[in-house]
Design goal:
Length: 77
Amino acid sequence: MTKGMFPNPADWMRLLVDAQQAQIDVTKTMVDAGAAMLDPSKADEAARKLEEAGKQALDAAEALARAQIEWLSFWRC
């Protein structure tokens, strides 16, 4: 990432887009898990998808934290 007096905001935007994509992926997995829960025979699949969504949620939170840290670093002189 660019550091210094005049940072490139595109660097931060890339991190933000990555974080938002991770959040979208979590949502998709949660929807898939919810659909699997409707069928009792797919309980194991639903549990697996919920576990996967939990891991994806952590990744998304970390990606958002990276974007926030980068944004804050732009304001350091």
